[in-house]
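Title: Comparing notes on inverse folding

I've been comparing how different people in this forum approach sequence design from structure. To keep things fair, I'm posting one structure and asking everyone to reply with a full sequence. Here's the target:
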């Protein structure tokens, strides 16, 4: 019934989230359509959440497209959160671009937090160290580099410490990461 209602155009974000639990090809098509084409940002975010609930991983192409193309911080954040539901082989290319280019502080901080909870390939966060993004995001990236002893982070950490224009707390975190 939920699938039939969504197919008819009932744009309820909660319904679209629930569709993901069906984990069938028809649900994927409906969710992708709403995620990519609906005019309502809340409906699109609900569809992205539904795609994340699909066990098949079939919706990563739509989630990646939303992440890459959307100017909406809420949709980009929903896409980043959804990526946590996919396997590393599926999400790594998308997250690499995200950490290299994301400008939305809320989305970046949420992704870094989620990363610490769920991922073992932390070297992806090193681009955040060298970017002119929010200091909180850079601090979080430094702490992840320290926690996981990321070798690729040594050069950017040294640059952070040496640049007296950087936030003092950030410089202290970076120095601490280099000592450990």
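Reply #1:
Here's my take.
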């Amino acid at each position: 019934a939920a699938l039939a209602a969504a197919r008819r155009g009932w744009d309820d974000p909660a319904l679209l989230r629930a569709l993901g639990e069906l984990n069938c090809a028809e649900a994927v098509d409906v969710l992708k359509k709403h995620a990519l084409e609906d005019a309502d940002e809340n409906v699109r975010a609900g569809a992205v959440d539904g795609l994340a609930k699909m066990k098949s991983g079939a919706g990563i192409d739509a989630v990646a497209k939303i992440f890459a193309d959307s100017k909406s911080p809420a949709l980009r954040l929903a896409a980043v959160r959804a990526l946590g539901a996919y396997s590393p082989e599926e999400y790594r290319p998308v997250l690499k671009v995200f950490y290299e280019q994301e400008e939305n502080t809320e989305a970046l901080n949420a992704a870094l937090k989620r990363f610490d909870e769920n991922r073992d390939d932390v070297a992806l966060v090193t681009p955040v160290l060298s970017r002119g993004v929010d200091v909180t995001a850079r601090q979080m990236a430094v702490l992840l580099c320290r926690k996981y002893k990321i070798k690729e982070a040594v050069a950017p950490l040294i640059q952070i410490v040496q640049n007296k224009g950087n936030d003092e707390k950030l410089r202290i975190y970076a120095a601490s990461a280099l000592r450990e």
